[in-house]
Description:
alpha/beta, Rossmann fold, 5-stranded parallel β-sheet, about 50% helix, binds BIS(adenosine)-5'-pentaphosphate, binds magnesium ion
Amino acid sequence: MRLLIMGPPGAGKGSQAELIAKHYSIPHISTGDMFRKAISEKTPTGLLAKSYIDKGELVPDQVTTELVRGRLKEADARDGFLLDGFPRTIAQAGMLEEILQEEGIKIDLVINLVVEDDTLIRRISGRRICKTCGRTYHVDTKRPAKEGECDHCGGELFQRADDNEETVRNRLAVYYRETEPLLECYQAKGLLKNIDGEGSIEAIFEEVKAVLGGI
Ligand code: AP5
Ligand code: MG
């Protein structure tokens, strides 16, 4: 199964991707997570990415696509994958198409989580992430058993540097300008499935499974 998960910042892409990847045994490939790892390791890509991410801007297409190209060639992605947060521009979608053609594979489905702006802001401002394993929590809707500690690995929970109000507003503007237009392209290809992303994480995942059961 080769899938894309799309939707604005805070729509729940990562939360659903974690469940989908586990249920269908496919790797969850998030460009945002890959950049955050590169930043924490202070690699050249990480240093470059940080200057864009901190402002809520997109990392240049070429850099992002090369990262994805390399990741898709790894053994665990051979039989399937779930791409989260890529492609994000028309140019990235074209480059992804080239990569898929080179490999002789295609995307089976594009899941788009539909969520109102007010909900997005609420979700992003309450989000906390585990420093060690990257799992996502929320101060109201997904609290860890022990305050400030990851249920899975005991790692310290922190707030993403780009989850502040000013940066979030720019991330939303960039999403509507650069990424939302891609949905029409996938709609035209008959690949797009819009899913109401306003319910609980569990209810949305039930809907995702129902949609994926059909492919
Ligand atoms: P990225 O990390 O992809 O961030 P994003 O797209 O802004 O999306 P988020 O990760 O913020 O939200 P999400 O949809 O994953 O929501 P989540 O499940 O965490 O990218 C970050 C940056 O990296 C970009 O701004 C850009 O600079 C750069 N970048 C990345 N990819 C790039 C690319 N392709 N090209 C160029 N640059 C790129 O949920 C959010 C919160 O809500 C959590 O607290 C969660 O617990 C909670 N929640 C989730 N679902 C529900 C629900 N149903 N009910 C209640 N709470 C919920
Ligand atoms: Mg995410």
